[in-house]
# Entry
Amino acid sequence: MPSLKANINLQPFNTFNIKAKAANYLAFSSVESLNDYFQAYAELPFLVLGGGSNLLFKKDFPGTVLHNQILGIKTQDLAGDFVLVEAGAGENWHDFVQWCINQGFGGLENLSLIPGKVGAAPIQNIGAYGVELKDVFHSLTAYDIQNRKLIELDSKACDFGYRYSRFKGDWKGRFIITNVTFKLSTANHQLNTSYGAITKALAPKQTITIRSIADAVIQIRQSKLPDPIELGNAGSFFKNPIISQEEFDRIQAKYPSIPNYTAGGKYVKVPAGWLIDQCGWKGKRFGSTGCYEKQALVIVNYGAATGQEIWAFAQQLIASVEEKFGITLEPEVNVIGD
# Structure
């Protein structure tokens, strides 16, 4: 029977730096540990924790926090200019991306400096600067809690969408991801520099490589986003809304400068940060929380905010954007304690 730690402080384990406690805590680094846990404590509620970079605790967690610490990286050469790279779900995402770049493997460079662990990446279908995880995803292995066994899942099974996978839908709470495998390029990689500020960040005469793109992305993110060690935050708090072309045309007629990106079919993606900024929230502080001064999409904890206070502030932003633009923002972070 695994030994659980009781009444654990979760503040070091979430980048919002929120004071919250878990009734129980178990760090696991193997499937055997998971088997032992669910055989002994199947009746307890649980929360799988990686880097804690996409969580907001509104209150204490009454069950067990299972902290994923499965590590390791393996590669398998494929025919042509490709390689499969398998990473343990507990690996740090940014460190893993940089490791791949150092090996000359292309595909993940636009996803540099995203906080969190490898195992969380497919759940959220993380994305940045024109690239989503699904673009380089091959497969994953996950522990099936219902059947107490490992299962391998491909891209189709995961049903990826914008900041979505089936793990956030009908599979929520059923699987614990243990390893993720990516299909990356070893040569002739198609570089993606057209989205956002990457082109501007790249020096005009430099040779564009996966390393220079990664460096540009890191530079952009560091210039816009606060370091969670210095200022608690979970990165982008809201998803970028995807609206109909008709709805976009209505808004653009009133706000001609509205930035936008095609989202397939007759849909348009609009930056949530721009919408919040237009409502006058950027840099506004209320007590111990507020919008970051350089990026309105980021809600920050100035040191003593509770999860309830941050959530209440987020509701004000949602209401403000709804009133001004008729668009309802959806949180990107996972809110624990509803």
